[in-house]
Structures are given as structure tokens and as C-alpha cells.
């Protein structure tokens, strides 16, 4: 018998409603709807997500799925962003985007209340200027007084079911959850002066949230998209690293317990909650954002550019001309990424790439260096020796990036699944419905063996202060 599940998977560029058909241990995904999610600049009012539009897409997706007799549905999305629900049950204002500059200066403000070492010892969360805790600090305190904070997937589930809660994998990205107890840290909440009523009760992946308007059960999945993606990594053994590669590259290891020491904090590694009590020990890298934002700009300027062609041409450019640090804060806000890359190269005395293929070559090699750096650092900090890198998500279709990542890491890269987050989403639902016991059997669609001399990668990495070995 076939069992059907709906997975809503929201990325910061596009969202999908997928139908997952589970049949004898295998999951087959098909796309019901795909829609842009990208944030909009409100005149005078910051960078915001259109939550109403996403809600409408979910409703339309459920209607599209209806003939399939759906067992349940679940929602995952990017992390850290939230809506505030008032005592009247209504969403107060919009949901702001984490790329909004309102968090400027909040790192310093938080430091006055809690020092970095204490914050990390409790939460194990890497410093990203847009973590929820910094966004909350940027709110006028009176706005928070009588509100409940719902992270985006929880907010969308609330709009479907009326049930309030915070799913734990995503809650961990707020930097308000205790990484050891996996409960909200009352201690931190008090130190920061947030109202204790702000944070709703936690829920676990697999729990029933409620019932949607059409009777479809809504199940809490690993609602952080990266947690869903990691849950779908088709690893055969424990000795693997992963890269969940989309707008961001999330690079790290699956561990049984958090690594909360000073070295991990200084290396800016995070301990996000995974399914079944696991820890996602990883580091954020700016990811394909650099490429998609550049493509957007070139198209706006009227360049007749396609991704396939520019990738092909990029690989004909000379290697290792210029390398940038993709994690530099200058690359975070939307805008002219090629100009910022040029600036970075000029500032560091490297040749400035001027054509789209040259810029793309720089982006690909820089991402590969950042991937290799994070794989190596994760392994050292956790005392592991990964033998293979599983690269999952949309980036697994980017052949040059997979190839360069294998070369830079000096490890084989197993590419795929592409729709890892949607697959992990379906997996948790199907397990909860007891129609699947284990990670679904998926085979990576390609494998890239490392080639070429290591010395060139080591030299390129040094230009951005990275020691590859
Ligand atoms: C990837 C992601 C990542 C977060 C970022 C905000 O989509 O969820 O794990 O750090 O978005």
C-alpha cells in the first residue's frame, strides 16, 4: 500500500509543496507547487517575508494534494525568523528577514547582558548577527510584553491548526535553548530580560501539532530545513561529513552530544538540535547566495545569462586567480555581490574578476575552500575522521562546485539527494505514522573523487587565512 505525505519546504529563495509517496520503505517525491519566497523591502519598513502569500501557497498545495488522500503534512523552513502573536491570537506586524540590518549593534548590546563564553556554554550556538536572540533585542521591549514568539514553520502551522508551540530543532537556532537539556534556558531569558511568556512550549519532531481546516493532520517535522536535510543524508557509516548546500552551505558532522568548549566557540561552530537527540555540529557558510544574488543582478542589467552556461565558462577560466572569504559580513545583505567580490579582491591585493565567468570561478573556488575548512575544523574539534562528504540539497546539482569541493577537501563527495529537506520532512512524518522505520533508501546521484595537487588548494586557502592541513 502507498501512503502519501505533504512536505512544505521553504527556502529563502523558493518554496515547494511536495507530495511524498511512501511505498515499501522507499520515498518518491513529486512537486505540487513551487513559488518564490524572497524577502521584499518595505518602503521605510525593513526587509520582510510575505507570510500571507506562503500561507496561500500551502492551502493551494493541500488542495492539489487532496485526491491523493494524505496521511499528514509537515512544514520546514530556514531558521531564526519569527512572528509575534498577540493575546487576540493575531500576528502582530510582519515577519522580518534575517538579512534586515536592524540587528546591527545587537551583538554588542547582548554582550553587556551575557558574555560570549557563557552564551556559548549554555546554547552552543555559533555567533551569527541575525540569530533570533539578536532580532528580539532589536524589538522595542513593549512590543514583546504580551506576545508569543512563533518561528516561521510554527507560525504557519499555527495558522493552519490554531496550536501554539516551538519545534525543538528550529528552536535551537534562536540561541535561547540550552544545548545540553534541550529546554528553553530560563537563565538566559532572565538575564536578557525577555518576558518568560514569550517562548511557547517545545515540541519534538514527529509530534502531532493539530488538524488543518480540511482535516489533514499537521505533524511537527524537523522544522529547521537543515535539520530535515541532515536527517535525509544517505550515510552508510558514521564516518561522514555533510554539506547541506543551498542559499547557505551548512557544513559539519552528526554527533551524539554537543561540543561546547572554547575551541569550538572560537571556531564559530554551532550545536543545533537534530532528530533523535543528535547534534548538528556545523558552521554556516554563505553558500549559493553569492551565485544566485550575482545572477539576479546580471539579469537585471540585461545580461543574457544562464546558470549552465556561466558555470561551463567559469570552469574554462584560469584556476585560483582570486579567492574571497564568503563568510565576510560584507556578503550578507542583498545587493551588488560582484562589486563586493571586486572590492574584497582589490583590498587583498588579488586580481579583480571582471566578467561573469571570472566572478563565478572565484565564487566556486572560494566556496570549495570554505567547505574544506569547515569539514577539517569540524573533524579536528570533534575528534572524527570523515571518509566521505555527503553534499545534499540544490547545490548537489552544481557539478563544478561538487568537483571543486572534493578537490579542496581531498575527500570523495557523494552528491544528493537534491530535495534532502523535503525528504527528511517526509521521513519524520512517515516514521511517526509507522509506515517507515529507517532513513529511506536513496542513492547519491553522483560521486566525485578528489583529483589534482593539494598544494595549489593549500596556497589558495592561505590567501583568506585558511590552513587546509
Ligand atoms: C538554511 C538556514 C540555515 C540558517 C539560515 C538562516 O536555509 O536554515 O541553517 O542558519 O537558513
Query: Please, what is the average pLDDT?
Result: 96
- Based on helices, strands and strand pairing, what is the structural class? alpha+beta
Span of the ends, CA to CA? 51 Å
Per the CATH scheme, the topology name of the largest domain is Nucleotidyltransferase, domain 5
Main sheet: strand order: 17-18-16-15-19-20-21
Radius of gyration from the alpha-carbon trace, in angstroms: 21 Å
Strand content: 15-25%
Low-confidence stretches: none
CATH level 1 class label of the largest domain: Alpha Beta
Biggest sheet record: 7 strands, mixed
Helix content: 25-40%
Query: How many separate domains make up the residues?
Result: 2
Topology:
Elements: E1 3-10, E2 14-23, E3 26-36, E4 40-42, E5 46-49, H1 51-65, E6 70-77, E7 82-85, E8 91-92, E9 95-96, H2 106-113, H3 116-123, H4 132-137, H5 141-144, E10 148-151, H6 152-161, E11 166-167, H7 168-171, H8 186-192, E12 202-203, E13 208-211, E14 217-219, H9 225-231, E15 240-245, E16 249-255, H10 262-266, E17 270-273, E18 279-285, H11 289-300, H12 307-314, H13 337-347, H14 356-382, E19 388-392, H15 399-409, E20 413-415, H16 420-432, E21 446-448, H17 454-462
Parallel strand pairs: 1-6, 11-12, 15-19, 19-20
Antiparallel strand pairs: 1-2, 2-3, 4-5, 5-9, 7-8, 7-10, 13-14, 15-16, 16-18, 17-18, 20-21
Helix pairs in contact: 9-16, 12-14, 14-15
Question: What does this protein structure show overall?
Answer:
It is globular and about 60 Å long. The protein has a seven-stranded mixed sheet with strand order 17-18-16-15-19-20-21, with helices on both faces. A four-stranded mixed sheet has the order 3-2-1-6, sandwiched between helices. The protein has helices spanning about 50-65, 105-115, 115-125, 130-135, 140-145, 150-160, 170, 185-190, 225-230, 260-265, 290-300, 305-315, 335-345, 355-380, 400-410, 420-430, 455-460, and strands at about 5-10, 15-25, 25-35, 40, 45-50, 70-75, 80-85, 90, 95, 150, 165, 200-205, 210, 215-220, 240-245, 250-255, 270-275, 280-285, 390, 415, 445-450. Strand 17 (about 270-275) and strand 18 form a beta hairpin. The chain is of the alpha+beta class. About 35% of the residues lie in helices and about 20% in strands. The structure holds 6-deoxy-beta-L-fructofuranose. The site of 6-deoxy-beta-L-fructofuranose has 14 residues, from helix 9. One of its GO terms (cellular component) is cytosol. It holds the Pfam family FGGY_C.
